[in-house]
Amino acid sequence: MRFDLSRRGILALLAVPGAAAGLRLVGVAKAQEAAPEIAGGHSGHGGAENVVDFGNRVVGTVDHERNGFDPHAMLTDWDAGRVSEEGGRKVREWDVIASDIEIEVAPGVFFPAWAYNRRVPGPTFRCTEGERLRIHFTNGSSHPHTMHFHGIHAARMDGIPGAGLVQSGETFTYEFDALPFGCHLYHCHSLPLKRHIHKGLYGAFIIDPDPERHPLEREAAEGRLLGSPANQRWQEIVLVMNGFDTNFDDENEFYAVNSIPFAYFEKAIRVERARPIRVYLVNVTEFDPINSLHLHANFFDYYDHGTTLTPTLKTVDTIVQCQGQRGILEMTFKEHETGLYMFHAHQSEFAELGWMGMFDVVEATA
Ligand SMILES: [Cu+2]
Questions:
Q1: 271-281: per-residue pLDDT in tens?
Q2: pLDDT digits over 314-348, tens only?
Q3: How far apart are the C-alpha atoms of 271 and 268, rounded to whole Å?
Q4: If you measure from the C-alpha of residue 192 to the centroid of ligand 1, how many angstroms do you get, rounded to a whole number?
Q5: Cα(344) to centroid of ligand 1, in Å?
Q6: SS3 sequence, 140-204?
Q7: Which chain residues have CB less than 5 Å from ligand 1, an ion?
């Protein structure tokens, strides 16, 4: 049996129950699995009683263990690196290895990825404004790659051909200061660029503001600084919007946040109603000019690029990002009923091909 694996063909499969193993519709309501809590060790329940049937999703499950990464763990697994001090200054270092791996992007659908530290997206680097950063990059892949950081740095640290291109088996250390604070990204900048990015070489790069540098907006800066008392009440997650062209025709067959289509739809992201939510949103989707996030039944404030401490957009429920654009969303459900609140790309086609998720808003349990 052969299936049309073009983008429209996949859509057709999704529309016909029983058309292909692993890509069939779920026609019957299925209880949401209890989801892990985010941002802190609080426990709770509330997932299992919420049952929704939107019909349009895949059956079967991706083997996260075989992939070596789990989209639910990726929401909050900030990689703070190794911290040391040199001449009174904080230095933060990471080791990154690029390799060729095969990942399962949808049940039974495999993708030959290029990955940083064996995951797509790569690690979510998190640091504080003004620190000295060193990223020791080793290319264990079969192609030349780079790490190009969106941030402020010298030309020779730019991670492009001629400035930090790393051949197979070789190593390069990128070194620069953590500036400016915000929600950034990094990606490979080898040529052809769209193929190197789309294969999976990208990740989020978050620089928290240093409250000492922002006396007039100190409170807002402290709320952003990971681990500070003011930051503890926040439920923070990172969502990297991406897609996969599984048949290499320069169109995506699947869309997702953090790589696995429907991951946060099948298993909602549990949040406590009483605590605010902060989403670090990054768009690296290749082949499509824009991507978006729309939140149901609520509105949020938005900080474009995350480089300000006051919102650049207030009270919106949809945000659009071109590739490479990113920002911070802040929202609260404290006046809402508990329950499942959806978020998804407002390009309906992206949503139907995987870019959909849910917040499971539960009572505070702490
Ligand atoms: Cu590359």
A1: 999 999 999 99
A2: 999 999 999 999 999 999 999 999 999 999 999 99
A3: 9
A4: 8
A5: 29
A6: CCCCCECCEECCCCCHHHCCECCECCECCCCEEEEEEECCCCEEEEEECCCCCHHHHHHCCCEEE
A7: 145, 188, 190, 196, 201
